[in-house]
């Protein structure tokens, strides 16, 4: 326990140091506006990837509707700040909570499904949310909402990202997280061991949706404009790419994947077709030659401090990714 | 009433396109338990091959019916080869790995085909030539219209469906396919060449998707590299609706979905059409996961 605590605080200190350095670089103007918006995008994507990893990587429930949760959060918080003058942070949290409600709603009926069918059902739900947004005049229809105040700053984003990573990571390491991993490894065996699989699947969906919603709200308040089209199947797919690339089931992997994909996205902005072609080739080759992703199931840990424990964890979990 | 019947006829012609694509999904799923996301894009490729061969053959001055048949055959053959190639390169190395890995690969292949298409053909839609002159017939002297295209679509679908039934029921490959879908290991022990059977499944499924692509082009006169996404998903919905793995199920599911969609559009909710299709899918999955014609399989430990 002592070891985990020490490691945990070291991690927080490293992260805060990183925050401080970037903050200084931003205020002194070393990092340009372009870099700042890229940093914000990286943060949002980290939240999305880490939250999807909880659903897909840890609990083993393949979901391709993550952008749907994101859009619920984005629209809710944008409407609250635009039309009702709600302060920024409560609006973001409200967006997250509503997305979490959607997580429960989607989680409950689809839990009977597994594997491929769940994937398709979540895809369907994501598309239904998009079509509802598209046909609702109140939320701007096809043209979406614009003029959203750009209130997401580096500080806001950093702390939201840090909190979501820490919370999700601690959840994964808790008893509940172990239960989720058990479901991933073998649902029937987990059930037989007395784990309430339904309950844990709903929990995973809800937490995942909550943070996706928060990420959506933050991204809406970064880029002024949201349209239903920005939360389509492609966006969900992009989040999956991040998680898979980093390594299903690894929080550190999701972070690496999110950073990598965002960089790729930013630098290939001029060549959108090539971007998608590279995405897909990377994904196919990855699945064939290294299905466990870049980092495998490596736990989120900070360098040397976590080595002993990481090994012990590997022994428990084995090397099998879902 | 007449209006309703008119919409029913339109629905059936949309539905036959879904049904043809759904057959490919159903066959592949039945045999290797993989949702082949790339199937909708094979449909797109088939459509484009049909477009180019039709243009070329029409310029060569052949009669329309020959142009139609030849472009169908060319498109089906090339797409069948494409299907086999995809299977060999992307899915075969993954036979032993997890279902999620295979599903992700399928999504990857789908995007690869789409954006290679965008890169080569450009993102804008292209016009599909009128291979056959469109004629309109009035049923029983009433105001119900049937287009020659719609008749041709239904005919093509029925003929292909009969050929497929024949292949699956009476040929050696068909028997092998049924055996493999029943139990891969047992089939292998009985001396069935499993790899070749899987390739055959992909070839037949892709050829049917290509036929659907040509028909789609002739109906809507417009094709683009991303056109496979929605029909692909809808066809999957149709396959699930009918019970995935079941050939008659795919036909019924496709026709049903096409009809429901057209009726919804005709009631003035066309922008909700896609949403309704997915809602139907989710309802079916929740209440009857094995579909209308599917078998209930108990989970084995």
Please, could you describe this protein's structure?
Chain B: It comes from Paenibacillus phytohabitans. Chain B: It is a multi-pass membrane protein. The complex is a heterodimer of chains A (322) and B (301). Chain A is 73% helix and 0% strand. Chain A has 322 residues and is mainly alpha-helical. Chain A is globular. Chain A starts with a helix and ends in a 5-residue tail after the last helix. Chain B has one domain (13-227). Chain B has helices spanning 2-32, 39-59, 64-91, 99-121, 148-170, 172-182, 184-189, 194-220, 229-242, 247-266, 273-287; strands at 126-127, 136-138, 145-147, 222-223. In chain B, the strands form two sheets. Chain B has a two-stranded antiparallel sheet with strand order 1-4. Chain A binds chain B through residues 56, 60, 62, 64, 109-110, 112-113, 115-117, 119-121, 123-125, 127-128, 131-132, 134-135, 188, 233, 237, 240, 244, 248, 273-274, 276-277, 279-281, 283-284, 287-288, 291, 321-322, and chain B through 33, 35, 90, 93-94, 97-105, 107-112, 114-116, 118-119, 229, 233, 236-237, 240, 271-272, 274-275, 278-279, 281-282, 285-286, 289, 299, 301.
**Most extensive contact:** A-B, 43 and 43 residues
Sheet with most strands of chain B: 2 strands, antiparallel
**Structural category of chain B:** mainly alpha
Helix/sheet category of chain A: mainly alpha
Number of separate strands of chain B: 4
Spans of at least 5 consecutive residues with low confidence of chain B? none
The fraction of residues in strands of chain B falls at under 5%
Q: Please report the number of helical segments of chain B.
A: 11
Organism (chain B): Paenibacillus phytohabitans
Main location (chain B): membrane
Keywords (chain B): Amino-acid transport, Cell inner membrane, Cell membrane, Membrane, Transmembrane, Transmembrane helix, Transport
Pfam families (chain B): BPD_transp_2
């Amino acid at each position: 326990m002592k070891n985990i605590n020490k490691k945990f605080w070291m991690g927080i200190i490293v992260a805060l140091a990183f925050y401080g350095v970037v903050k200084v670089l931003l205020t002194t103007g070393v990092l340009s506006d372009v870099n700042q918006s890229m940093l914000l995008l990286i943060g949002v994507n980290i939240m999305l990837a880490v939250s999807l990893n909880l659903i897909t990587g840890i609990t083993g429930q393949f979901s391709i509707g993550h952008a749907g949760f994101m859009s619920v959060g984005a629209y809710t918080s944008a409407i609250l700040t635009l039309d009702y003058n709600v302060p920024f942070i409560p609006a973001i949290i409200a967006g997250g909570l509503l997305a979490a409600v959607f997580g429960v709603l989607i989680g409950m009926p689809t839990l009977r499904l597994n594997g491929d069918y769940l994937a398709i059902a979540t895809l369907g739900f994501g598309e239904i949310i998009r079509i509802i947004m598209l046909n609702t005049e109140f939320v701007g229809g096809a043209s979406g909402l614009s003029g959203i105040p750009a209130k997401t700053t580096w500080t806001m984003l950093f702390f939201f990202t840090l909190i979501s990573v820490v919370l999700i990571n601690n959840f994964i390491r808790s008893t509940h997280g172990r239960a989720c991993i058990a479901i991933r490894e073998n649902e029937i065996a987990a059930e037989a061991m007395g784990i309430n699989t339904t309950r844990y699947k709903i929990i995973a969906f809800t937490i995942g949706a909550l943070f996706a919603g928060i990420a959506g709200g933050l991204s809406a308040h970064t880029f002024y404009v949201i349209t239903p089209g920005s939360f389509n199947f492609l966006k969900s797919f992009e989040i999956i790419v991040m998680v898979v690339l980093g390594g299903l089931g690894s929080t550190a992997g999701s972070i690496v994947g999110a950073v990598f994909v965002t960089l790729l996205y930013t630098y290939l902005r001029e060549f959108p077709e090539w971007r998608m072609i590279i995405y897909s080739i990377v994904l196919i080759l990855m699945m064939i030659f290294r299905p466990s992703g870049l980092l495998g199931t490596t736990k989120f840990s900070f360098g040397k401090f976590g080595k002993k424990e990481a090994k012990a964890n590997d022994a428990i979990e084995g090397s099998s990714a879902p | 009433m007449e209006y309703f019947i008119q919409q029913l006829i339109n629905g059936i012609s949309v539905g036959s396109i879904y049904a043809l694509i759904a057959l490919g999904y159903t066959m592949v799923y039945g045999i290797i338990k993989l949702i082949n996301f790339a199937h909708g894009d094979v449909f797109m490729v088939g459509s484009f091959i049909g477009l180019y061969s039709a243009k070329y053959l029409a310029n060569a001055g052949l009669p329309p019916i020959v142009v139609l048949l030849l472009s169908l055959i060319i498109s089906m053959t090339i797409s069948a080869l494409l299907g086999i190639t995809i299977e060999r390169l992307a899915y075969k190395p993954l036979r032993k790995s997890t279902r999620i890995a295979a599903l992700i690969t399928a999504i990857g292949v789908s995007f690869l085909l789409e954006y290679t298409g965008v890169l080569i053909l450009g993102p804008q839609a292209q016009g599909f030539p009128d291979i056959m002159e469109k004629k309109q017939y009035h049923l029983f002297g009433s105001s119900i219209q049937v287009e020659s295209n719609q008749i041709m679509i239904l005919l093509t679908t029925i003929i292909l469906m009969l050929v497929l039934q024949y292949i699956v029921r009476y040929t050696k490959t068909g028997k092998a396919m049924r055996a493999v879908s029943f139990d891969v290991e047992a089939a292998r022990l009985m001396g069935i060449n499993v790899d070749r059977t899987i390739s055959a499944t992909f070839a037949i499924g892709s050829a049917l998707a290509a036929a659907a692509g040509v028909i789609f082009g002739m109906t809507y006169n417009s094709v683009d590299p991303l056109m496979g996404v929605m029909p692909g998903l809808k066809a999957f919905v149709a396959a699930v609706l009918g019970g995935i793995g079941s050939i008659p199920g795919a036909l019924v599911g496709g026709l049903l979905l096409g009809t429901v969609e057209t009726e919804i559009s005709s009631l003035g909710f066309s922008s909700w059409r896609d949403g309704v299709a997915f809602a139907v899918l989710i309802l079916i999955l929740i209440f009857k996961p094995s579909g209308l014609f599917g078998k209930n399989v108990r989970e084995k430990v």
